[in-house]
């Protein structure tokens, strides 16, 4: 069945609640604080909630102590993220004692899970509002209930649909997120995402293009298209469009900007996509393509549905079409049953491919996923040892790759303030490498030409030309 949008009437009723909350708050100008855990999708969701809060009359603050409304947008991908969210919420008990009127809310992937809802109901009485990923667009009516009924509100219901036209308050600067699809159908056996974010659903290409045009008009220079698996974009739309087609359409939008996208799945990434990337001048030559493990046996048990050989052939095709492409990947170390031999194959793939950036994770069992009940023989020490070998091998590769940038002249996008006085700004290369820059008349949000004058493991250093 084709993806449904939340109906116009349902959305309109939320705008009515935004007005109703605004009337309740009157001219108090209350303050709202938000904290986001996890991925870019969560950051994009938080920007929607901030948009709604701002329309209600809340002012944003970076200080939870002075906030009247506090929100934690949570992540469930690994246990560590969950522990941090619980820790943060736990620490707010005193605030609630001092100022009984504040509203503490939790949303996101953790909030979508029944077991966490029970835990919060029982052990975190300071939380007065909890809503899951599917209920995000109903936030105004939920907050209205909290404020008027003076009781705790929990909502983890909802359909796999899409809400277009919600307000948004984006971070200022050079970069913006643009969600093109939600959910995931892949059910990798370690991953909780399909359970908390529902099935894949794509936004209509014309809606995405409209939003991109608005972002470009607002001055954003780097727009990242978001989805759990962007390569299956469009499959649910019932029209003849795939991700490569979408890239070409968006590339035709006038303006000087870079388009990035994440995340890609190797089973769906195709030569067609790499051709589109190579031919589209605004699409940054950068690819995040998680391979997770170099062992076919482990890949099979992860339900990834590709082999290491296939992965290598994709990289070879991408590099043949875009020789300067920068590549990054995600790896899970210590998946249940991973042997030293399996791990050696992961290490070999890393050494053969020579990624520019790696995100390496220790496997974290997630209740409700198949892998959580797989037998696991490796000890935590074995896993830690593998993890460290991987980091060391990757650092050696990165050191060589970074050194090769010495003296190069590159186009950079200035995106923030750096810490040190010598190089006051941060910037990104087209390949998304971090650069610290110095020079006259540098402004955040502008492209500059620069020359790399020295390099370190994590940063390139440049002066503006
Ligand atoms: N344990 C460790 N890492 C995980 N990831 C997803 N689920 C888990 C898990 N249970 C990693 C994958 C994914 C990235 C976003 O997080 O590498 O690509
Ligand atoms: Fe999780 Fe796999 Fe979906 Fe990525 S593709 S969100 S790892 S299930």
From TrEMBL:
<dbReference type="InterPro" id="IPR058240">
    <property type="entry name" value="rSAM_sf"/>
</dbReference>
<feature type="binding site">
    <location>
        <position position="75"/>
    </location>
    <ligand>
        <name>[4Fe-4S] cluster 1</name>
    </ligand>
</feature>
<feature type="binding site">
    <location>
        <position position="188"/>
    </location>
    <ligand>
        <name>[4Fe-4S] cluster 2</name>
    </ligand>
</feature>
<keyword id="KW-0949">S-adenosyl-L-methionine</keyword>
<dbReference type="InterPro" id="IPR023404">
    <property type="entry name" value="rSAM_horseshoe"/>
</dbReference>
<dbReference type="InterPro" id="IPR020612">
    <property type="entry name" value="Methylthiotransferase_CS"/>
</dbReference>
<keyword id="KW-0408">Iron</keyword>
<dbReference type="InterPro" id="IPR006638">
    <property type="entry name" value="Elp3/MiaA/NifB-like_rSAM"/>
</dbReference>
<keyword id="KW-0411">Iron-sulfur</keyword>
<feature type="domain" description="MTTase N-terminal">
    <location>
        <begin position="30"/>
        <end position="148"/>
    </location>
</feature>
<dbReference type="InterPro" id="IPR013848">
    <property type="entry name" value="Methylthiotransferase_N"/>
</dbReference>
<dbReference type="GO" id="GO:0005829">
    <property type="term" value="C:cytosol"/>
</dbReference>
<dbReference type="GO" id="GO:0046872">
    <property type="term" value="F:metal ion binding"/>
</dbReference>
<protein>
    <recommendedName>
        <fullName>tRNA-2-methylthio-N(6)-dimethylallyladenosine synthase</fullName>
        <ecNumber>2.8.4.3</ecNumber>
    </recommendedName>
</protein>
<feature type="domain" description="Radical SAM core">
    <location>
        <begin position="170"/>
        <end position="400"/>
    </location>
</feature>
<keyword id="KW-0479">Metal-binding</keyword>
<keyword id="KW-0004">4Fe-4S</keyword>
<keyword id="KW-0963">Cytoplasm</keyword>
<feature type="binding site">
    <location>
        <position position="39"/>
    </location>
    <ligand>
        <name>[4Fe-4S] cluster 1</name>
    </ligand>
</feature>
<comment type="subunit">
    <text>Monomer.</text>
</comment>
<keyword id="KW-0819">tRNA processing</keyword>
<dbReference type="InterPro" id="IPR002792">
    <property type="entry name" value="TRAM_dom"/>
</dbReference>
<feature type="binding site">
    <location>
        <position position="184"/>
    </location>
    <ligand>
        <name>[4Fe-4S] cluster 2</name>
    </ligand>
</feature>
<feature type="binding site">
    <location>
        <position position="191"/>
    </location>
    <ligand>
        <name>[4Fe-4S] cluster 2</name>
    </ligand>
</feature>
<dbReference type="GO" id="GO:0035597">
    <property type="term" value="F:tRNA-2-methylthio-N(6)-dimethylallyladenosine(37) synthase activity"/>
</dbReference>
<feature type="domain" description="TRAM">
    <location>
        <begin position="403"/>
        <end position="465"/>
    </location>
</feature>
<comment type="similarity">
    <text>Belongs to the methylthiotransferase family. MiaB subfamily.</text>
</comment>
<dbReference type="GO" id="GO:0051539">
    <property type="term" value="F:4 iron, 4 sulfur cluster binding"/>
</dbReference>
<dbReference type="InterPro" id="IPR005839">
    <property type="entry name" value="Methylthiotransferase"/>
</dbReference>
<comment type="function">
    <text>Catalyzes the methylthiolation of N6-(dimethylallyl)adenosine (i(6)A), leading to the formation of 2-methylthio-N6-(dimethylallyl)adenosine (ms(2)i(6)A) at position 37 in tRNAs that read codons beginning with uridine.</text>
</comment>
<dbReference type="InterPro" id="IPR006463">
    <property type="entry name" value="MiaB_methiolase"/>
</dbReference>
<dbReference type="Pfam" id="PF01938">
    <property type="entry name" value="TRAM"/>
</dbReference>
<dbReference type="InterPro" id="IPR007197">
    <property type="entry name" value="rSAM"/>
</dbReference>
<feature type="binding site">
    <location>
        <position position="109"/>
    </location>
    <ligand>
        <name>[4Fe-4S] cluster 1</name>
    </ligand>
</feature>
<dbReference type="InterPro" id="IPR038135">
    <property type="entry name" value="Methylthiotransferase_N_sf"/>
</dbReference>
<dbReference type="Pfam" id="PF04055">
    <property type="entry name" value="Radical_SAM"/>
</dbReference>
<keyword id="KW-0808">Transferase</keyword>
<dbReference type="Pfam" id="PF00919">
    <property type="entry name" value="UPF0004"/>
</dbReference>
